[in-house]
Amino acid sequence: MFDSQYVYKIIKKDGESLAIPNSAGIFDSMELSALYAQGYVFCCEITAPTPSRAIEIYNELVKSEIIKLQQEITRLQAECSNLQRQNESLKQNSSQWSHESSNSIKYYELFGFSEFPQPDELKKRFKSIQSKLHPDKGGDKQLSQLFNKAYSVLTKH
Fold it and tell me: What angle do CA 68, 19, 69 make, to 5 degrees?
C-alpha cells in the first residue's frame, strides 16, 4: 500500500515547530503571514505523510546537523591548538634570535660574518642589508628591527 506524501512548511518560534501544509486551499497565505507576524520563521520544506512525521523528520535533520557542527567545532579546536603550539614554538625560536647566547646564532653571523667583523665592515654590511630590508624600501619591518638590534648590540662591543 502506498502512503500519500505531502509537502509541509516547517516554521519555528521559541523552540516550537509547526508543520504547515504547503498546498493551495488548505492553509492560505494570510494565515501563514499572521504566523510570521507573530515571530515564526520559515525553516524548510519537508515531504512526509503527516504533519507530526514532518516535524520528526525536521528534528532528525536538525540533530544530524548539530552533530556535524559539533564535529567541525572539535576539528577546528584541534587545529587551533595545533596552531597555538606552532605559534609558541615560533615565539621561542624568535626569542633565540633576539638574545645572543652560546646556544643561538651570534649577531655577527646574521650579517654573514664567521667571526666578529671590523667596525667599518659591519657598518658597510648593515647599510647594504638595511637598504633592502627597511620598511620604507618595501622590506620586512620585523627583519629590519632584528638587524637594527643586532647592529646596536655589536657596535656596543
Answer: 10
